């Protein structure tokens, strides 16, 4: 069994009665200590069942959301991330807003060295919208990395394959 110091303040993992929030709930996000903060490595989450609501029509929007980050001192706990992403299910916001909100909440939560969030939404009305945003810690090599990756992002859109 791991100690409280090793696990941090994780309360969702291992619970038998999971509560799924009805609307946007950043307070469900939890972190734990990164055991290797001196290393640069990516952690990637794929959420192929992300849903939110169109703020104008109330119709559901579906996406695969990709979250990749290089952790600093803290890491996001995956079950809390799942519950957080689920909380968008009844949340009305445009695709671009949802993806930027997710990134900003994760930056505030864990202060990563680098993070990127990409939403690949299924088409509605004959068009898909695939917002991408990223962030690199200011005044570090990660800030330049963020700019470089943004400039090179999705250079070949015909390779988008989630539809």
How would you sum up this structure in a few lines?
The protein has 163 residues and is of the alpha+beta class. It has helices at residues 4-7, 78-86, 95-110, 141-152, and strands at 31-33, 43-53, 60-70, 74-76, 114-121, 132-136.
Q: If you had to describe this structure to a student in words, what would you say it looks like?
A:
With 163 residues, the chain is α+β, with helices and mostly antiparallel strands. The protein is 25% helix and 25% strand. The chain is built from four helices and six strands; from the N terminus they run αββββααββα. It has helices at residues 4-7, 78-86, 95-110, 141-152, and strands at 31-33, 43-53, 60-70, 74-76, 114-121, 132-136. It has a four-stranded antiparallel sheet with strand order 2-3-5-6, with helices on both faces. It has a two-stranded antiparallel sheet with strand order 1-4. The termini are far apart.
Largest sheet: 4 strands, antiparallel
Query: What portion of residues belong to β-strands?
Result: 25-35%
- Structural class determined from secondary elements: alpha+beta
Total count of strands? 6
How many individual helices? Answer: 4
Helix content: 25-40%
Give the overall shape, derived from the CA principal axes. flat
**What pattern of helices and strands is seen along the backbone?**
HEEEEHHEEH
Low-confidence stretches: none
Classify the oligomer.
Answer: single chain
- Going across the major beta sheet, what is the strand order? 2-3-5-6
How confident is the prediction overall: mean pLDDT? 89
End-to-end distance = 43 Å
Radius of gyration: 16 Å
């Amino acid at each position: 069994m791991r100690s409280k110091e090793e696990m941090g303040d994780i309360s969702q993992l291992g619970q038998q009665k999971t509560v799924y929030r009805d609307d946007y709930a950043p307070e469900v996000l939890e972190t734990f200590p990164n055991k290797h903060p001196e290393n640069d490595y990516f952690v990637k989450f794929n959420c192929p069942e992300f849903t939110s609501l169109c703020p104008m029509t109330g119709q559901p929007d579906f996406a695969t959301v990709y979250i990749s980050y290089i952790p600093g001192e803290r890491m996001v706990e995956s079950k809390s991330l799942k519950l957080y992403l689920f909380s968008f299910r009844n949340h009305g916001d445009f695709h671009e807003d949802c993806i930027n909100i997710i990134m900003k909440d994760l930056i505030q939560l864990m202060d990563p060295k680098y993070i990127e969030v990409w939403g690949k939404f299924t088409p509605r009305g004959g068009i898909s919208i695939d917002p991408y945003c990223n962030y690199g810690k200011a005044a570090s090599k990660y800030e330049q990395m963020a700019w470089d990756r943004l400039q090179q992002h999705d250079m070949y859109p015909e390779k988008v394959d989630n539809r």
